[in-house]
Input
Amino acid sequence: MELTVLLVIMFILYGNSETALVEPYNFHIECTCIRNNHFLITNCSNLELSELPTFPSNVNVLDLSFNRFGILKNKSFDNLHQLIQLNLSDNQLFHLPRDAFYGLSRLQNLNLNSNNLKYDLESFPKLVFQPLISLTHLNVAHNSKHVDKFPDEVISHLTNLRSIAIDAKTTEPNETAFGKGFLQLIHLQTLTIHNCHLHFNSYTFENLKYLNSIDLYRCLIRTYTYGTLSGRHLKFLNLVRLREQAVHGIIPKSIMHDLSNTTEETLIMTKMFVDQNIHVDLDYLIRKLENTAVQTLYLNRNNMYMSENSVRLLPKSLMFLDLSNNVLEALVISMPNLIFLNLTGNKLGNFLQRYRYCRSNITKLKAIYLSDNAIDRLVVSIFHGHPLLEVIDLSRNTLTDINFDLTHLHNLKMLDLSSNRISSLSPMSIKSINEIFKKSDLKINLSKNVLQCSCDTYQFLTWMAENSNHFIPRNDYKCKFSNCSILEIQQFKHIFLQIARECESHAVLIICISIAIFAMLTVTIVGLVYRYRWRIRYLYYMTKSKYKQNKHSDSYDAFISYADSERDFVLKDCIENFEQHGNKTLCIHQRDFLPGEEIANNITNAIHESRKTICIVTRSFLDSYYCMFEYNMARMESIYSRNGQNILFLVFYEQIRPKELPLIMLELVQQHSYIEYPHDEQGNIVFWAKLLEAIS
Ligand SMILES: *[C@@H]1O[C@H](CO)[C@@H](O)[C@H](O)[C@H]1NC(C)=O
Ligand SMILES: *[C@@H]1O[C@H](CO)[C@@H](O)[C@H](O)[C@H]1NC(C)=O
Ligand SMILES: *[C@@H]1O[C@H](CO)[C@@H](O)[C@H](O)[C@H]1NC(C)=O
Ligand SMILES: *[C@@H]1O[C@H](CO)[C@@H](O)[C@H](O)[C@H]1NC(C)=O
Ligand SMILES: *[C@@H]1O[C@H](CO)[C@@H](O)[C@H](O)[C@H]1NC(C)=O
Ligand SMILES: *[C@@H]1O[C@H](CO)[C@@H](O)[C@H](O)[C@H]1NC(C)=O
Ligand SMILES: *[C@@H]1O[C@H](CO)[C@@H](O)[C@H](O)[C@H]1NC(C)=O
Ligand SMILES: *[C@@H]1O[C@H](CO)[C@@H](O)[C@H](O)[C@H]1NC(C)=O
Ligand SMILES: *[C@@H]1O[C@H](CO)[C@@H](O)[C@H](O)[C@H]1NC(C)=O
Output
C-alpha cells in the first residue's frame, strides 16, 4: 500500500516527462514507463514477476509478457479503466478466474499467447470475456496442446472482435474448429491460425461469415474438400509453408483450383509445401490466377522453375510481386501496373546479360531487387521503360562497373551496388551518374567492394570525394593500393595526398621511360641508316635513274675512278693503253659524264653501264669524297645488280700501308686480287697487259 502511494507520487512528479522510471515495487522490479502520444505505457516485460504489482489507474498499455504468472486473481485489473492493451504472453497461466478481466471495459487488445491454458471451460470460464466489451484483437494461440476446439460459448461475448489468433485442430473430416459461438462475431475479419491441424471442408468457415483475411502459417492440412476457399472475397491469404498429411501433391492442386474462384488482393505462398519437398506446379497455379485480381503475390522460397510462357500469364493486376529465392533462369514479365518486383536469389545472371526482364515498354515500377543473381553484366537497356524507378538493388553480384543505362531514371533514390567487384567506375558511368545527381538525391551503396587506390582511379576517387554525400555509408570504404595493402578510407584527403604523390613519381617514371625508348629508337635507326648508308644511297640513285632511263647496257668496258692528282695518268696512260692499244672503251668522268646531270647520278649511271670499275687508289683517292663514293657504289652494284660477281678492280698507284686503308677496302684487298702500279717501263708493260686481261 505504501509502495503504491510512493508510485502515485512518483507519477505526479515524473508523469509528464518523456521517460520516468517507476521505483521498484520489490527490490528487483523495474518497470519502464513511457508516455507516448498521450498513451502511458508501462512495460514490465521479462522481469521474472509472479505477483502482480499495483499500477496507477491511468495506464493505457501494460506489457506483462515473459514473466512467471501462473494464476491471476479475480479483479486483478479492476482499477485500470483506461487500459487499452494488455500483454500476458509467454507466462505460465493455466487458469483464468471468472472475474479476471473485470473492469477492463475499454480493453481493445488482449494477448494470451504462449501460456498453459487449455481450450476448455476449466481454463476459460464461460463468462471470463464478458467484461471485454471493447475487445477487437485477441491472441489465444500457442496454448492448447491437447484439446482441439476453442469453447465457442466463451468467445461469443466478444461481439466487437475484429481479429483473432488461435490454435485449431479437427479430427473428423466433417468437423469445424469454429463452432456456433463464432456466429456472434459479426466483425471478425482476420483469422490467424497457429498450431493448425485441420480438415478443410464446407463446415470449416461456416460460422466465420465475414472473414477477409486468413493466415494459415505452417498449417497441416489433413484433407481438403474442393470449394472450401472458393467464392470468398479475401483481401489476404497466407499459405506460407503448408504441410499436408498423407496424399502428396493433391492438396496444393485443390487449393490452387479454388483460388481461381476467389477474389484475393494479397496472396502469400512463401515456401508453400517446400517443407515436404512438394514442388508447386507453377504453370497450373498461374493459369488459375490468370483471371483473378490479385495485387500482391509472394511466390518466394518455392524452389521453383518457371517457364517463360507461364510468367507471361501472371495477372495484369499485380502491383507487388516477390519471386525471390527460387531457381528462375529466365523471366519475361508484362505487368504494366507492377510497382515492386523482388527477384533476389535467383539465377538470372546469364539471362539478363542479353535480355530485359520486362516486356511492356512502360511500367510503373518503383523498386527492383536483383540481389544475389550472379550478375556480372546487364544488358544496356535493362531499365528502359521504368521512368519512375526509385530503388535498384544489385548487391551481392559480380558486377565490375555500371555498363547499363541509367540516364533516364530521374527519380532514382537508391542504387545498391554493395558486395560486388567494383574497383572503380569508368568515366562513362561517372558521367551518367552525374546526370542523375543533377535531378535527384541519389544514394549509392558501394560498401563491400574493394576499391582501387592508384593513379588510374584517381579521377574516380576525386569524384567520389566531391560527391561523398551521395555515398552510403559515408567514408566506410576499403581501398586497395598497388602494393596490395588494403586501407579503410576514413579520410579521403589523407588518401589523396598519398595517391597524388604516387602519381607524380608514376608520371616522372613514364616520362623517363618514354625518353629512354625514344633515344633507343633514334640510336637504332641512326645506326641502321649508317650501317646501310651505301646500300640506301645506291638503291636511291638506281631507282632515280631507272625511272628516267630504263636501259641497262654494257656501254663501257670500264669506269675509271680516280682522284684529281692522277688525272694525267688516267688521261694519258690509261686512254692510250686501253683505248688505243687495247681497243676498249673507258668511261672517264671528265670526258663522258653528262653535263648538267647531278654528279652522283652520273657516277651511278657510269658504274651501272660499265662492265668493270677500276679504282686508282692513292692517298688522295682515300681522302676524296667522290672517289670513296664511287668505290662504295661499285661495291653495291656488284652485290645488287651483278649477282655478287666482282666488278671492282683496285690499282694501287702509290705504296699504301694496310693500316692506312679503310676497313671496307681492306676486306676487298684481302679477298680479291689487286695490282700495284710498278712505275718503271718494264713493269708497266706487264701491268697494262694484266689490267687489260682483267677487264676483258
Ligand atoms: C517492452 O519491452 C520489451 C523489451 O524489453 C519490448 O520487446 C516490448 O515491445 C515492450 N513492450 C511495449 C508495449 O512497448
Ligand atoms: C472469482 O470469483 C468467482 C465469482 O465471482 C468465484 O466463483 C471464484 O471462485 C473466484 N475465483 C478466485 C480465484 O477467487
Ligand atoms: C505485447 O503485446 C503488444 C500488443 O499485442 C505488443 O505491442 C507488444 O510488443 C507485445 N510485447 C512483447 C514482448 O511481445
Ligand atoms: C461426422 O461423421 C461421423 C462419422 O464419420 C458422424 O458420426 C458424425 O455424426 C458426423 N458429424 C456431423 C456434424 O455431420
Ligand atoms: C465459384 O464459386 C461459386 C460460389 O461458391 C460456385 O457457385 C461456382 O461453382 C464456383 N466456380 C468454380 C469454377 O469453382
Ligand atoms: C526480397 O527478397 C529477399 C529474399 O527473400 C528478402 O531478404 C528481401 O527482404 C526482399 N526485399 C524486400 C525489399 O522485400
Ligand atoms: C509502346 O510505346 C508506344 C509509344 O511510346 C506505343 O505506341 C505502344 O503501343 C507501346 N507498346 C506497348 C506494348 O505498350
Ligand atoms: C550498404 O550495403 C551494406 C552491405 O550490403 C549493408 O550492410 C548496409 O546496410 C548498406 N547501407 C545502407 C545505408 O543501406
Ligand atoms: C602501401 O602503399 C600505401 C600508400 O602508398 C602505404 O600507405 C602503405 O604503407 C604501403 N604498405 C606497405 C605494406 O608497403
